[in-house]
UniProtKB/TrEMBL annotation:
<feature type="domain" description="ABC transmembrane type-1">
    <location>
        <begin position="16"/>
        <end position="212"/>
    </location>
</feature>
<feature type="transmembrane region" description="Helical">
    <location>
        <begin position="194"/>
        <end position="215"/>
    </location>
</feature>
<dbReference type="GO" id="GO:0022857">
    <property type="term" value="F:transmembrane transporter activity"/>
</dbReference>
<dbReference type="InterPro" id="IPR010065">
    <property type="entry name" value="AA_ABC_transptr_permease_3TM"/>
</dbReference>
<keyword id="KW-0029">Amino-acid transport</keyword>
<dbReference type="Pfam" id="PF00528">
    <property type="entry name" value="BPD_transp_1"/>
</dbReference>
<feature type="transmembrane region" description="Helical">
    <location>
        <begin position="54"/>
        <end position="75"/>
    </location>
</feature>
<dbReference type="GO" id="GO:0043190">
    <property type="term" value="C:ATP-binding cassette (ABC) transporter complex"/>
</dbReference>
<keyword id="KW-1133">Transmembrane helix</keyword>
<keyword id="KW-0472">Membrane</keyword>
<feature type="transmembrane region" description="Helical">
    <location>
        <begin position="20"/>
        <end position="42"/>
    </location>
</feature>
<comment type="similarity">
    <text>Belongs to the binding-protein-dependent transport system permease family. HisMQ subfamily.</text>
</comment>
<dbReference type="GO" id="GO:0006865">
    <property type="term" value="P:amino acid transport"/>
</dbReference>
<dbReference type="InterPro" id="IPR043429">
    <property type="entry name" value="ArtM/GltK/GlnP/TcyL/YhdX-like"/>
</dbReference>
<keyword id="KW-0812">Transmembrane</keyword>
<dbReference type="InterPro" id="IPR035906">
    <property type="entry name" value="MetI-like_sf"/>
</dbReference>
<protein>
    <submittedName>
        <fullName>Amino acid ABC transporter permease</fullName>
    </submittedName>
</protein>
Amino acid sequence: MLEILTNYYHYFLQGTRTTILISLITVFCGFLLGCVISLLRLSKNRLLNGFARFYITVLRGTPLLVQLYIVYYQLDFIPYPKVSVWGIALERALPCVIALSMNSAAYVAEVIRSGIQAVDVGQSEAARSIGMTGGQTMLHIVMPQAIKNILPAIGNEFVTMIKETSVIQYLGISDLMYNNGIVVTATYNPLPCYYISAVIYLILNLVAGKGVSIFERRLKRSDR
């Protein structure tokens, strides 16, 4: 295992970098889209509410890999830039980001919705009584409190996304698992390669979990 790591460490480093970058972009985009879907889910408009329910049901009820292929082939008419950024081919990476973000948003939307509903309704009534509009109340009163409540769940989504990005290897993105396959092919010794990848994923998730815990403690400290 040590010999493989010494000779092919650059493949694992490149794959790890791609995995981290795709995960960060996906969680950020998924969070923004999830906010929109959650607000639609809370809307009293039946059409908007129905669309949000349909979106969440479909995205949570179908495999991520299937969604990845559907987005890749369905949106093949989009002229994605044929350039590479940090060794990542955008032509193949952007469909992956879109699919992963849409999938993440379906789960994040329900988390945000539960966080919003957990905020005391008296907070909204008090904001309205001093002349704040519905949008201002949601933006300045409800959402900040909701985000503090759901931060552990959002952090868990980031940890989950680090692992779920492994599906992008099927579209030729040089993430950790794709590069792991390259090393396996070169060495004909798969087991040590998978041990190395497993350790890397574990380290990434531990670091991500620790970062979320630190941020959560700081938020609690600021409330005192």
